[in-house]
Amino acid sequence: DSRRSAADIQQILELFETVCRRHEDHLGQIDAVAGDGDHGQGMVLGSSGAAEAGRRALQRGAGARTLLVHAGTAWSESAGGTSGALWGAALTAAAAALSDEQGTDDAQAVQALVAAVDALGRLGGASEGDKTMMDAAVPFAQTLEQEYQRCQELFASVSAAAVRAKAAAEQTAEMSARLGRARVLGEKSLGTPDPGAVSFALLMEALGDHLGA
Ligand code: ADP
Ligand code: MG
Ligand code: MG
User: Fold this and answer.
1) At what angle do helices 195-212 and 134-151 cross, to 10 degrees?
2) Complex-level ipTM beyond the 0.95 threshold
3) How many CB atoms lie within 10 A of CB 200?
4) How high is the pLDDT of residue 180?
5) Residue 88 CB less than 6 A away from ligand 1
């Protein structure tokens, strides 16, 4: 039912906060190479703000969709920064694929994830090759859709997509940045992966593990 679904979403938000805290220093360090070094902090502020908003929504008896809308708004407000606005928009877009009244089935979960990645692209205007989180998010969404069509299994599909996202995030080390703050120091980022791509892959890996647990 809808309670089950909202509680599941909340567990995922709590998980995201845990993962962001665990990797805060590393994400800050790779952002400092060609950016302003605040990506770890931004992800912790955003994910903890989202988790907090989710807890409050759950207490009020909110359904999955409403909970995720509140979480998305809180993520962008708490994080500030480019990635905060993008993650907030992603959560809000994912919410639109969910229902407040019914539980979330696997097909809806896939739709929600694909909608989230579409929202990142729409808001940020970045394409693959610009050295942003899109370099992990686009292959993630592609693999997710392909795998789900093939096996109709959410856990297997998200896991495969997360593996692809992780490899793609690592490959951004070979690119120089063209967008965001890092554009000024684009060449400096050669040899270091894009922080937003790395954090995206970390969160999707955690999501895959959660679905399999
Ligand atoms: P800020 O750049 O405001 O300090 P963060 O450090 O939190 O924000 O996030 C930086 C990350 O945001 C980059 O590593 C990149 O992945 C992502 N990013 C920046 N601009 C864009 C964009 N236009 N589209 C998609 N992602 C972007
Ligand atoms: Mg930054
Ligand atoms: Mg910043």
Assistant:
1) 30
2) yes
3) 30
4) 57
5) no
